[in-house]
Amino acid sequence: MFLIDCVVDSGADFCVFPAKMGKAIGLDIYEGESIITNGIGGKEILYFHKVKVEVFIKDEPWTFECRAGFSTKLNTKGIGFFG
């Protein structure tokens, strides 16, 4: 489990997390479906997996499954979240 304080990008096309988070929860991120994306950070390959996410809104947990992309660029830049 990761506890992360982050800003939500409500205009993002995908839920995207750093590749190192995927590796930490046991995913081989490169086995996921790869999609080339182009955004503010430029062109990049995201590797998608189905994951369970829990967020806290006003101290209440909200849990859901989503199709999330994992990014090697975000290992050093931060987190993009929501679609």
Query: Whole-Å distance between the termini?
Result: 22 Å
Structural class based on helices, strands and sheet pairing:
mainly beta
Order of helices and strands: EHEEEH
- What is the tally of helical segments? 2
**Residue-averaged pLDDT:** 81
Helix content percent band: 10-25%
Task: Name the features.
2 helices; 4-stranded mixed sheet; 12% helix; single chain; 83 residues; 47% strand
Please provide a written account of the structure:
The chain is built from two helices and four strands; from the N terminus they run E-H-E-E-E-H. The relative contact order is 0.34. The model has no long low-confidence stretch (mean pLDDT about 80). It is mainly beta and about 80 residues long. Helix content is about 10%, strand content about 45%. It has helices spanning about 20-25, 75, and strands at about 15-20, 35-40, 40-55, 60-70. The protein has one domain (about 15-75). The radius of gyration is 12 Å and the shape is globular. The longest helix has 6 residues, at about 20-25.
Could you provide a short overview of the structure?
With 83 residues, this protein is mostly beta strands. It is built from two helices and four strands; from the N terminus they run βαβββα. Strands 1-4-3-2 form a four-stranded mixed sheet.
